[in-house]
Amino acid sequence: MLQKPRGTRDFLPDEMERRRLIERRMREAARRWGYREVCTPDFENLELFTMKSGEGIIQEMYVFEDKGGRQLTLRPEVTAAVLRMYVNEGKVLPKPIRWCYFADCFRYERPQKGRYRQFWQFGVELIGADTPSADAEVIMLADDTLRSTGVTFDLHVGHLAPMKHLLSGLDPGDQRAIMAYLDKHDPQGLEAALVEKNLTHLAEPLAALGECRTVSEVFEVAGDVPERARIEETFSLLDSQNIDYRPDFGIARGLDYYTGMVFEGFAKNLGAENQILGGGTYRLAHLFGGDDVASCGFAIGFDRVMVSIGDFTLAHEPVVGVVCTPEGRARALEVARAFREAGIRAEADLMGRGMGAQLAHAAKTADFAAVLGKREVEAGTVTLKDLHSGEQQERSLEDAIAEVARHGAC
Prior knowledge:
- By secondary structure, this protein is of the alpha+beta class.
- 40% of the residues lie in helices and 22% in strands.
- An eight-stranded mixed β-sheet has the order 1-5-6-11-10-9-7-8, with helices on both faces. A five-stranded mixed β-sheet has the order 13-12-14-15-16, sandwiched between helices. A three-stranded antiparallel β-sheet has the order 2-4-3, covered by helices on one side.
- Strand 9 (258-267) and strand 10 form a beta hairpin.
- Its main location: cytoplasm.
- This is Histidine--tRNA ligase.
């Protein structure tokens, strides 16, 4: 028996309905802020991602050569693809551009709970606005989007400028090495690296920076960095809107990618693999042949959100099983269509069962049975049977539809 590929999943109807519900909530949150959905190809030129992240990322990707000899890859993330699309299609659009996406991505890595080889991301890209207000809007939208899902989370917000200021005297290689240890929260590795590079004088301020819980404390540690006014205004805007976040200037993600503000979200019930959100300001378009436009965005790990939320009861929508005699099949199709046009799910027999077998099956899958015997067909009525209470009554089709609709979603 063939099995699904490792790191992928099958989703049965109940789970798909839960996923679509949360997906709709996220899309609606972005819509309210003026972000419109875009879609990019599932596969892109390999260079799109190596140009941004280097050749080392290839081992984590699904890379293949097409029949024309072109090196392609299934997308490992969506931001680069969206910025490629901006360069190809969107440079003349009025700015700022507010785009969002919901897409599956692919990475060749060891599967584990909440981490798969095919996974889904919801994300936002704000292109062409380089202001504290733009930074604050994206953070507030991220907060709004996560709250719409019902997940419980902690939001951390920081800025790379103070840390870069502390490391400004180092060559780029040493900066990257130290930032990598900070990003991995590896104090032992960081201490060893600082000793090896004779940079132990940085240990205390780097540790203190990660402990700062107010913006003013940050500048006491890092000094008066050039971006101070922008940082203060961004955090002031967040505070004015009562956003529940923790200042975290120890965030060290993406030194070569992010240019300033960074933020992360952590689910409170996922243990070690609990990051569900990451974002910040960046500049990518110029790498793909476009202008050096400021951008800000985030991506939410949809699968981890769903793991965090767990199973929940879906609102039940009534189902009608249309039961008929052989001579009533044409009328049964008309009745089923009338229920469906009223927005009610209706299922007709496809197995050629007798009336008794049809009712027995409907009792397993439906809430009501619309019975069409010879009398109902001739009179243009239906006998509507409540399969939970057993009550039944012959009604006009319009009254039967109204009765089922009265029960609605519950």
